[in-house]
Design brief:
By secondary structure, the protein is an alpha/beta fold. 45% of the residues lie in helices and 19% in strands. Strand 1 and strand 2 form a beta hairpin. Helix 6 packs across helix 9 and helix 12 packs across helix 13.
């Protein structure tokens, strides 16, 4: 009997030791450690992806706190709609109104964690007749983005300066920037509203092309409670709830990447060209400071974005998916 009790006691001690060891392995400083995963990231090529290039390079070199898997930068923002909805990617840099559309289509399954790009539209002219928005009265304006954010932005700014987009100006909508470039090349005095970094590239090809105004300036004169928001970072809500600590690390690392972008123009331009976001390093270097790469989070994010989406909604509810996003659209930490 004594031998049996001794054996049972030994077994109990072994199991107790194993249980303690298991708890120790899953605790860090007395707290349960969080489950981690590889974060799958996508981004639309162009300014929306520029703030991410340093993070991507650091990830490839193994110099990040999280483990990331970057998708190839896409030229069509709609390429992220299905992957975000089905969980194939976790985080994406997309146009601001697309984020609202995905939110509505998926019934709140994505959240915006940061504003990453402000306005990139410039008013340009091959001449010297336009120096303010009011000078556009009676003029022909070439532009791209009919039925999308550029159109709503242009209309709002014209209206805020007392001009009717359908009566006081003639907006000719080009199918793409290539068509707009041909118009600028062929017409002396041509006027256009076009995005960066295309404007920088066009200026290298067209003698006398002048940037009249960055439309961020025009917007702020009529609406200082919000900003033009070109791009945002979105996350799947399920991912945010399951991996909150990893998401916080991502936001911190993305913020560091944006800071690097602003203070290391030459190195960032090289990475932008390396990843094929802009055709050449020289163009990237000139355009980068004009692309307004930022990292707004929490209240700064919401105040900039919510007012902008409201402007879009007021012109066309379908532009944001039919309804304004609710409070849970805005991720805070």
């Amino acid at each position: 009997m004594k031998k049996l009790l001794a054996v049972m006691l030994s077994v109990i001690m072994v199991f107790s030791f194993a249980a303690c060891a298991g708890k120790s392995a899953n605790n860090e400083g007395g707290r349960q450690t969080e489950e981690t995963t590889t974060i799958r990231i996508g981004a639309m090529a162009g300014p929306t992806a520029m703030g991410m290039v340093k993070l991507r390079k650091d990830s490839e070199n193994g110099n990040t706190k999280n483990t990331y898997a970057f998708e190839d930068f896409a030229t069509d923002a709609s390429a992220f709609v299905t992957p975000l909805a089905t969980g194939e990617i976790d985080i994406a840099a997309v146009p601001s109104n697309l984020a609202a559309n995905i939110y509505n289509k998926t019934e709140g399954k994505v959240q915006v964690v940061a504003v990453n790009t402000l306005g990139v539209l410039n008013l340009v002219e091959r001449g010297n007749t336009v120096n303010s928005i009011s000078d556009l009265k009676g003029k022909t304006i070439y532009a791209t983005g009919m039925g999308a954010v550029p159109e709503y932005t242009i209309r709002y700014i014209l209206s805020g300066n007392g001009l009717d987009a359908d009566k006081d100006v003639d907006i000719v909508w080009c199918s793409d920037t290539t068509e707009a470039l041909s118009k600028l090349k062929s017409e002396d005095g041509a006027i256009a509203v076009l995005p960066q970094p295309f404007v920088t590239a066009a200026s290298a090809q067209i003698s006398g092309l002048r940037v009249v105004m960055d439309l961020n300036e025009a917007w702020e004169k009529i609406n200082n409670n919000s900003k033009i928001v070109t791009g945002v970072i979105v996350v799947r809500k399920e991912f945010a709830e399951k991996y909150p600590e990893q998401l916080k690390k991502f936001i911190d690392e993305y913020n560091e990447s944006v800071a690097y972008t602003s203070s290391n123009i030459d190195e960032t331009a090289q990475l932008i060209a390396e990843y094929g976001i802009v055709a050449s390093e020289a163009i990237a270097k000139k355009a980068l400071p004009k692309c307004h790469i930022v990292c707004y989070i929490n209240n700064n994010m919401r105040s900039a974005l919510e007012g902008f989406l409201q402007v879009l909604y007021d012109q066309n509810p379908k532009s944001v998916g039919g309804s304004m996003p609710k409070d849970d659209f805005y991720y805070e930490y």
